[in-house]
Inverse folding.
């Protein structure tokens, strides 16, 4: 009975992580804005920054992986592999989130020492959508860290449960 | 329960994974420490001619420091934290004595290693993408590249980045080895741990 609750909890976690990664992906992809500025038109798309492209790709990979693991049967031998893959996916999520955050921070505040002006004043809607995508990515990351701990526990279980 | 404890002890002190883990930790410690130090001491000052007043050129001095970019500050701090973690784990492995053999210790080492893997990969990637903007500029946002003017700064930063990425790969391997040490040696899929011939 306890096992069933744990399994349902893990499935719910993974479904939530899949949803968060998918949301981050979709919000980032649909973010574009065109602003006209003294006869100079500036169009901001997510493909302008390499970090945002990496963010989209990483979240796509994580979404597809989560979707596939949702259907993994309980007694499959692949669960040990899932621990390693969960770690790799968490690494992908942190690296893409941190890279996108670093670039977005420069876009919002600029970098006076390098002579880089902030662009958020000119394309506020784009900036807001990117912020939303980053928040969804952060939620996906937190859920994935919890999932990683759960997969580790379920694979190396019952031994450690008795010890600690 | 006693048999289970001794099985775990044998898994933890099995000589191959013990030496491998120690060697990997030494490498990861040196890689992340060198990345932190090289980026921490990264500074370049240059004077440029910014204009002409009549016939005399006007010079101004510019400095490129790592503190100017928050991503690089995060890079230095994260690399320092990960190298400290590796040093701590090495010390515990060498001088830990009896604590090393408890399940709680092995589990906490595995979890801490996993968290540090994510930390170092985040830091390395953030610095990498910011450096890419600094090297190539960004036409859409009208951000100029700075590497053509501060070549030494960029080179040192690139060296620190390479060391950090080596640290990422090493930390991932260390994490995998720590997780594999958690399993008792009789499991058929973990054949790297030495299987005991006699169960005490």
């Amino acid at each position: 009975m306890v096992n069933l609750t744990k399994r349902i909890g893990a499935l719910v976690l993974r479904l939530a992580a899949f949803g968060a990664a998918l949301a981050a992906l979709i919000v980032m992809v649909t973010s574009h804005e065109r602003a006209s500025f003294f006869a100079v038109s500036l169009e901001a798309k997510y493909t302008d920054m390499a970090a945002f492209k990496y963010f989209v790709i990483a979240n796509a990979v994580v979404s597809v992986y989560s979707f596939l693991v949702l259907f993994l049967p309980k007694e499959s031998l692949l669960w040990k592999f899932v621990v390693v893959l969960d770690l790799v996916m968490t690494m992908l999520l942190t690296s893409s989130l941190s890279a996108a955050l670093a670039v977005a921070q420069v876009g919002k505040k600029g970098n006076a020492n390098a002579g880089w002006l902030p662009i958020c004043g000119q394309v506020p809607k784009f900036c807001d959508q990117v912020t939303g995508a980053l928040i969804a990515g952060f939620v996906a990351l937190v859920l994935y860290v919890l999932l990683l701990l759960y997969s580790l526990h379920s694979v190396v279980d019952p031994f450690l449960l008795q010890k600690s | 329960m006693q048999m289970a404890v001794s099985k775990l002890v044998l898994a933890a002190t099995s000589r191959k994974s013990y030496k491998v883990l120690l060697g990997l930790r030494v490498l990861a410690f040196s890689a992340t420490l060198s990345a932190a130090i090289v980026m921490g001491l990264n500074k370049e000052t240059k004077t440029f001619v910014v204009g002409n007043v009549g016939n005399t050129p006007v010079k101004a001095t510019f400095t490129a420091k790592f503190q100017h970019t928050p991503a690089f500050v995060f890079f230095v701090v994260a690399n320092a934290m990960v190298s400290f973690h590796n040093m701590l784990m090495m010390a515990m492995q060498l001088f830990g004595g009896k604590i090393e053999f408890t399940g709680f210790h092995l589990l906490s080492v595995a979890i801490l290693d996993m968290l540090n893997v994510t930390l170092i990969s985040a830091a390395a990637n953030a610095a990498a993408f910011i450096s890419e903007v600094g090297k190539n500029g960004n036409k859409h946002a009208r951000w100029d590249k700075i590497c053509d003017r501060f070549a030494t700064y960029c080179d040192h930063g690139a060296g620190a980045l390479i060391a950090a990425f080596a640290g990422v790969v090493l930390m991932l391997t260390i994490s995998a080895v720590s997780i594999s040490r958690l399993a008792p040696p009789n499991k058929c899929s973990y054949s790297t741990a030495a299987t005991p011939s006699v169960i005490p």
